[in-house]
Input
Amino acid sequence: MDDSLRELYQEVILDHSRHPRHFGPMEHPTHSGEGYNPLCGDRVKIYLSVDNDDRIADIKFEGKGCAISQASASLMTDMLKGRTVVEAEKLMGGFLHLVKGDAPINLNEDDRERLNVMAGVSAFPMRVKCATLAWHTMKSALEGGSPAKTE
Amino acid sequence: MTAPANITAAFDPAIVRKDFPILAREVYGKPLVYLDNGASAQKPKAVLDAMNDFASREYANVHRGVHYLSAVATDRYEAARETVRRFLNAGSAEEIVFTKGGTESINLVSYAFLAPRIEPGDEIVLTVMEHHSNIVPWHFLRERQGAVLKWVDVRDDGSLDIESLDAAISDKTKLVAVTHMSNVLGTVTPLKEIVSRAHARGVPVLADGCQGAVHEQVDVRALDIDFYAFTGHKLYGPTGIGVLYAKAAHLETMRPFNGGGEMIREVSREKITYADAPARFEAGTPPIVESVGLAAAIDYLGTLDRVAVAAHEHDLLSYTRERLRELNWVRVIGDAPGKGAIVSFESEGMHAHDVATILDREGIATRAGHHCAQPLMERFGVTSTTRASFALYNTRAEADALIAALQKARKILG
Output
């Protein structure tokens, strides 16, 4: 098989997309956002419960999409739970660098290793938006702004 | 498993493929299998050469210069209009308006013909299988003028029920806007019957022929249709040029669209008078080189036996359809009788974009997504499908490659 395909659809990604973590609605989120990819019609909803210390006490997502977007959302929720909003934004910055094929900045060893499963996306420029949709949606939810789009 | 090549005496895709230079290339080290013709078709050398020769030897702006090249270019541009007239069997070349594409053709009808006729509550009848380009211009009239959009459903097999369409027409209907061939399902609509039903109620009909003009033979006079829109680039011609056929009687009543040079008779500080159709609707410098390319594409099709081409495409469709049945995890959407060579499908447990990515690495170009037809996606309860759309140069071997690549996708993602 094409190495870049194997890298893209590695077992961790497929596992996340088949068995997404933190999938489902949230009763009383403090923040929520909806993301939409007009290219494919995929939608994702992100719910956050942020406590008084600006910490993400809980995070959930809903939606339908390709393996990349689902895996990315699942991985994101896994990694963000328990972090502060500032940490979340920093992680997002590192992730965006990673999937665009740049050196992931400002990430510690452990985060880099976990996010690295998404690095294969950088070889598929048409699919980067699939990977970033959930992250943009999370950011727009935290900012209470307008729905996130991929373009 | 490979099938014997389907070669008829009248039409041999293996020979025709040599006319299309791009088909010889590879992607990712694999032979290109181009199955995204519904989005845009590849161009034969005849089209590329015609445009290059014209731009190299005869190019100038049209209709305005008194110099030699301007006269030559004007002749070529107007000859292209005549070629299109023949292609559609229109009564007069003055009924052929050049636009920048199918989308602009439909927007032209919306703005210049229908908008001045719409009172709040007036209705526009369209089907759920329209491309967004035959939806959004009518939504504009809903938003801006209170028009009501009346949607005609399709049957589960994707075919159009003429009785439902008939029932949607009322005394308030101002236009029926319908595709000639669905870009997602391949469904071919019974245009002649639709026109006759609509005309019986005094309602004009617009057909979106962006797919239909490629795969069906169009005779606008036999159809008695009011408006027929199509684009050049899906018809093996260049991008940047489209056509609106409109009956002369309609064109005469239509207000100008874009304002600028070429579409006026006289301009003073106080007033303007407009040129006659089609110039009235062709403001600015038109797609001149592209008109030559479009005419070359039509001439190229004229060298082929179009009945044999249609038979070849239908063979590709039924062969692909048959082979897809081997994959019990694939659900094809749209099986209308007599449909064109477009196959849209869902793959169980796999998203269309993931499938298309894997197909792509096998050299196979397909389209994944909503195909600019979201109301139709909603109708069939899907957000996206993978679409293989065939052209005259595709082969059974390419359909086999598609099936093999789908099996591979299943192995990776399933």
